[in-house]
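Something for you to look into today, if you have time. Could you write out one complete protein record for me, on any chain you like? Leave the record below and I will have a look.
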Amino acid sequence: QVQLVESGGGLVQPGGSLRLSCAASGFTLNYYYVGWFRQAPGKEREGISCIRPSSGSTYYADSVKGRFTISRDNAKNTVNLQMNSLKPEDTAVYYCAAVPNVHLCSDYVTERYAMTYWGKGTLVTVSS
């Protein structure tokens, strides 16, 4: 069964860090583009990061550039999102998604092209 499961969310103080993981089952994540998206209460979903298959090239939205890092752990069939210098405006449900097609990461993050598989999300709350 094809499945993506996010983990690592929680409550963190402003300036703190969290590491989210996206674990895949039923397929090999290294052959897929993987994106991280988030949706804050009352706001539209926002694509924030993407990593290409195999080459590992990455893309970040301006809102998280320099603070978040996406990476692969092929041994664990996961993609991680290290989030540093967190701000209250980073509060959202974070989703990972994967797609096998060949386009640009920026096209997937902006949802010009659709992702194929989605996780159910993990909540990140940044608050003092």
